[in-house]
Amino acid sequence: MATFFEQNKRYLIWMGYILLAVVLLLWLGPLIGEKRPSRWVQTTITGLLTGGIYALIALGIVIINKASGVFNFAHGWMMLLGGFIFYSFFSSGQVSLLAAVLLSSVTVIMVMTMGSWRDLLQPRTALITLAAIIILILLMSLPGTEWKFVRAIAGGVTGAMLLGLVVERFTVRPLIGQPLFAMVLMTLAIGRLLQGFIQLTWGSVETPLQIFTTPEGTSLPTIKLDSLQELLGGVAIIQPGLLISFVLALLAFVGFVLFFRFTNVGLAMRASAENQRLAQAVGLRVRVILAAAWAIAALLATVGGVLQGGATNLSVNMPLLALLAFPAVLLGGLESISGALVGGLVIGFVQEWTNLLFPGTQAHVELAPYVLLMIVLVIRPDGLFGEKRIERI
Amino acid sequence: MKRKMLFLLMLVLMIAAALPATAQDMAMPDFIQHTECEVDLTGQTIPIYHFGDLSGSYAFITQPLLAGLSDAIKYYNEHGGICGATLKSDVGTEYRDTGGNREETQAAYDYFSTLADKPDLVVLYASGDAELLRTQVEEDEIPALISAGSVAGLYGEDAQTPGWIYASNPLYADQIGSFCKFVSENPDRYPDPVIGYISWPGAFGEAAYTAETIAYCASLGVTITGTPEYFLPTATDISTNVQNLVDAGANILYTNSLASGPAIVAKTVVDLGLEDSVQIAGVNWVLDTSVGLLGRTTLGSDGLPAVNGLVGSMPFHWWTERQVPGIAFINEQAAANERQLSTQNIAYLLGFGIVDTYTELYIQTVNRVGSLEAVTGADLKQTIESVSYSPLGLYTFDYQGGEVRAVPDNRIAQMAFLNKTMNGPATSGEDALTVDLPDGTKAFIPLIIPLTEFAAAPDLRPGGADVPAS
Fold first, then answer.
1. pTM for this one?
2. What is the pLDDT of residues B28-79, one digit of tens each?
3. Which of B201, B260, B442 minimises the CB distance to A313?
4. Which CATH class is domain B45-170+322-400?
5. Architecture in CATH of B172-314+410-456
6. Cα of B234 to nearest chain A Cα, Å
7. What SS3 class is residue A71?
8. Residue ranges covered by each domain of chain B
9. If you placed Cys at B180, which of A265, B164, B222, B433 could pair as Cys (CB 3.0 to 4.6 Å)?
10. How many CA atoms lie within 13 A of B16 on its CB side?
11. Complex ipTM, two decimals?
12. Is residue A88 less than 8 Å (CB to CB) from chain B?
């Protein structure tokens, strides 16, 4: 018997999975059958679109992990801070010139000196720095509500870059070469610090971020699938805010897949994540790589924060959303860009379908993502797209 | 010498002449009728201790409460305080933010309750906090005032044991009972009423969905669907929750949430094209400025915010009821302190109500026990259970007899928005008064219109007087 099991282990395990799938189907089939087709479509749409936001958040966490091997617990607070920086430029008729000068100067100088302060002494670098500062000041200072998006994007991107660079330079860089656990704890500390900073600066009250509005100041109209109403037996809608988040998540995914596969910086990031000391030994500028990774992650966090803030409000509850994205990261695989996207979408999809099939429970938030995560990790311990690690001992 | 005497005499006369005028300026308005002080407390301090969620989901409500408390304390101190004693409530020493976190709430309570001079009275914010601290305040003999009403927090798990926490609004279970009564009395408006319950998870959100409320509403011909729906405050899309309830037959969505909660329910109803077939209703916190402001960009087919027409409990007087002297007075104070529209909400009113309540309770208690030092929590509890008072006329404060822990007075009201001529509710978007905001959107000015008179809400605690016999 034992020999038979050993010889056919693989087949038996797969048969077990198939059996499990059949039981699941028999259990859920009648529940699905009770619902109108319009509900299936609506649930699928909502699930995938909500998953887009999870994917964006997961992507930011994965970027940091790919570059440094650290799981960034401060990501949710970085989202909120980025959202509030965007909001400050978006909702004020005109930004103070001093603020624009300070923000743009500090950020551009930090970007240009990621490797060394001496870089600024080169005339070409100095000229580019000056030009970038002037352009950013001009963009941030555009007056009136008609320029609010340009102003806010300039301010938001600059603020996000600064956030990422400051976090990297003053908290992560000193820990290069130290145990990973120290860096993970540092991200927890950064999260608390950002929380305090946000509450002191913007207060604690929910703040509406009206980005999904028409020029008249009303919400973007919901897309209604009217033509399918008869076929589906009911109405199905698409929330424009969620659709935009979803499209941005897809674009970011494509961009980062290409970035990590075909650019020197992307390849260097992957090498740095494998072993920082070794990467340094072969001449890679680990400091620059880490700084770039944190800046990119902060930018992604800001995009996520702005979109989530637009879909709901900017509130101190937002970092909880990052917690919901953690299963997406683990599901997809800690270092996988594709995994972040698929993980986010799968979590969103499963949550909404659980909500449809088991109404009146909190199973869709508190149970389903984690049950799914457990199942996947049992079958594939490195996640759906994670790289299998073999360590010599 | 004679000239000096004459000068002194004139000075004395001038001071004597000025005194009544000063006294008049220092006096409270006539409509505030406190018990006369028998003990002079000049030079002493009475702290108002409070802690709760100032930075989480409840911040839209609790931040204006802070503003109301602060403005009221300033005013009362400028007008003699409590028999000369100064009221005080500063961050850290007298109040703390718990962020809605249970552990932080416990830590805050542990800090305050173990002070050398432990509080005689505290103010709490949320049902969850009341449930957590119910037995502790009783053991420590610290009565607490609150504006929240879960059965477990006020009457314990058996629903029959009044504790040391006193709510200024009806129990949330009783509020949904009031609503069902209103629905049953208006068959033209609600011909075949089926309520779907959609709320935040947690002690507050789940407080009104009970076997007793379902049975009571059913006895009035109002069905509540078999399964409630709960969504997190971070939820971006609740269309599945809303459709679950509509599929179960709901034509009324009742929510025990606040601020962005009712706003997202209204948005989803409009997005799904259900605004003509589904009425949104809820607990007293849904009829608030915050809901009107947060829901300002999602417009219904009439061009007014989707939350227009939202029905709920309104156990207090509202800002527009200026015929109530207390309301007129608070309007003046908000203007004098340059409080923004977002601060002019129900909690700001309650902040004044709390300070006025403190004043009356302390005067009566000190009069009875002889000095401020002698006052204990048990003394204040005794006062609370013996007075019948209306703080600034905003609501009733009456726990006489010691059996009641939530004031049952309630009425049903409706949210509307001010019209351009500022004399009533707007009938359409074009008719509404709007204020341009820097983010390019328009703010509509929320109005709360009472639909019924004040009346006692049904008692729907387990074993309550109005729970139908099974």
1. 0.84
2. 888 888 999 999 999 999 999 999 988 887 888 888 999 999 999 999 999 9
3. B260
4. alpha beta
5. 3-Layer(aba) Sandwich (3.40)
6. 6
7. coil
8. 45-170+322-400, 172-314+410-456
9. B222
10. 6
11. 0.80
12. no
